[in-house]
Design brief:
Elements (H helix, E strand, L loop, with lengths): L1 H4 L3 H31 L4 H10 L4 H27 L1
Helix pairs in contact: 2-4, 3-4
Length: about 80
């Protein structure tokens, strides 16, 4: 296939990997956007601050906080991988 596209095989693999990682990043960003919108926050730190000042009840949202933390970690790791390509 690389010959048909007139692209070196390693370049085709790099481009395919980049497209895959960017797709995964878009999916994570969608989930982050939803959580950010649900709680009107922009980060785990901001959500934690809402717990500290009492504007957010931890009992109803702790799972979302954990999920948000995990998503932010995955986003950051994907960004590092994409930048390294």
């Amino acid at each position: 296939m690389a010959c048909q596209l007139h692209i070196p095989a390693d370049e085709l693999l790099r481009l395919g990997l980049r497209a895959f990682l960017e797709h995964k990043l878009r999916l994570i960003n969608v989930e982050l956007f939803k959580i950010h919108g649900d709680y009107n926050i922009s980060s785990v730190e901001e959500m934690d601050a809402c717990y500290q000042d009492g504007t957010l009840d931890e009992a109803d949202s702790w799972r979302d906080l954990q999920h948000l933390d995990h998503l932010e970690y995955k986003r950051d790791e994907l960004l590092k991988l994409i930048e390294s390509l």
